[in-house]
Amino acid sequence: MRAKVGDWLIIEGRKVDDRRRQGQILEVQHADGSPPYRVRWVEDGHESVVFPGPEARIEPHPVPPSIRVDDD
Asked: Could you tell me the pTM of the whole model?
């Protein structure tokens, strides 16, 4: 997995009730674009350092985040 600042990290849920998470990559810690990444999550603005797993993918900038509407 390779990314650059501004790309989107998309993490698909692995179970039926898991939500899709999307965050914008703020920092890439290795020159070759490999993880870990510092990410700001769309859902709450929280920032975290992420080592993405197999359920993750990178979408190039400027793909906008999707908007999730919950059925409550």
From this structure: 0.77
